[in-house]
Amino acid sequence: MSDDHEPGADDDTAEQSQGPTRREALGRFAKYTAPIMLAMLLSEQAAAISGQ
Fold it and tell me: Where is the stretch described as Disordered (predicted)?
């Protein structure tokens, strides 16, 4: 192995650092969708309660 070898130059770690990981993408998705889904659930429950 030569001294000028860069870590991640010839393996999968170089590709991973360029974009978000699956875990990061799912975390970001949950961060933005969870409040909306909670609001929808609460509004459905409120509609069901007021409709009875």
Answer: 1-26
Give the pair of three-digit tokens for residue 34.
């969870």
**Local confidence pLDDT in tens for the 52 residues of the chain:** 555 656 655 555 555 567 889 999 999 999 999 999 999 999 999 999 998 6
Exposure b/e, 15-33, CB count within 10 A at least 16 = b: eeeeeeeeeeeeeeeeeee
Range of the domain at 43: 21-51
| Whole-structure pTM value | 0.48
Structural domain includes residue 12? no
